[in-house]
Write a structure and sequence with these properties.
alpha+beta; three-stranded antiparallel sheet; 4 helices
């Protein structure tokens, strides 16, 4: 059995958020275009404007003094996103593509821009009061392929949210689609067991103490199950388990749990 405990808030290699209070600010020489004035007004009367930057589709929210409070990166995927060794959206048929796109369009963004602006401004005020310099916060949402076979294609949605300082919170959600129709498949249907038995099996794998197991049982959602070529991963996002400071998760080896999984639920390993 492969058991992985993910005890860090940053789960995607190479992604780093620079935010919070710190000294020094890089000078910006790019050309800016004002998209909308006063997109939000805070309780103290200060407001933020929405700007675009040359050669970028990201959204920049700036205060009147030029401080960039928040950058909302342009969401990506499932189109035009490739991962080495994994089939991608382009490998689906046209009808399946339409259904998958419809699913993600209907789900929309998993963060609230106004709430993120409010949190960013609160941190800006705290930095100002302490005499330190504020560094812009970032938010992103990306969809990428994770695994596939002749029956299914799987994707992960990764949402990165600023927490403060130099830290970032990641929300990871998995989705499985019928590759012929594009219809979403419930992650509980991946198992040969009834849902309740599948839930208990996953918790048994982790072998947590009684208190943590109770938290996991209450928090577990099918979207927290993500299929990769080598293993099935279950990840509890930061904040879903009261006793844990960071994200928490584990992986199941397909070979060891083959009897608990539908034969069509085990992805191909293309490496």
């Amino acid at each position: 059995m492969i058991l992985k405990r993910l005890l860090t808030a940053i789960l995607l290699l190479g992604l780093l958020l620079t935010a919070g209070c710190a000294a020094g600010m890089q000078q910006d020489q790019d050309t800016w275009t004002l998209k909308e004035e006063k997109v939000i007004t805070f309780s103290d009367g200060e407001s933020a404007d929405l700007w675009w930057r040359d050669y970028s589709v990201d959204e920049y929210y700036k205060l009147a003094d030029g401080t960039t409070l928040l950058i909302i990166q342009q969401p990506s995927g499932p189109e035009n996103v490739s991962v080495a060794g994994v089939e991608n959206f382009a490998d689906l048929g046209e009808s399946a593509k339409k259904a998958v796109l419809s699913y993600y369009d209907e789900r929309g963004l998993l963060y609230n821009t106004q709430a993120e602006l409010e949190k960013a401004y609160a941190e800006y005020r705290a930095c100002k009061e302490s005499g330190t310099e504020y560094h812009k916060r970032r938010v992103s949402q990306d969809v990428a392929p994770t695994a596939s076979n002749d029956k299914i294609m799987c994707f992960i949605t990764s949402v990165l949210l600023p927490v403060g300082g130099q830290t970032v919170q990641e929300l990871r959600l998995g989705a499985v689609f019928d590759r012929e129709t594009g219809e979403v498949i419930s992650n509980w249907d991946l198992f040969t067991l009834p849902e309740q038995e599948a839930r208990q099996m996953l918790l048994d794998v982790f072998d947590a103490d009684a208190a943590l197991r109770a938290e996991m049982e209450a928090a577990l959602r099918p979207e927290y199950i993500i299929l990769f070529p080598d293993n099935l991963e279950v990840t509890f996002p930061q904040g879903t388990l009261p006793s844990q400071e960071h994200s928490y998760g584990f992986g199941l080896d397909y070979e060891e749990y083959r009897d608990a999984l539908q034969s069509w639920a085990i992805p191909d390993n293309l490496d």
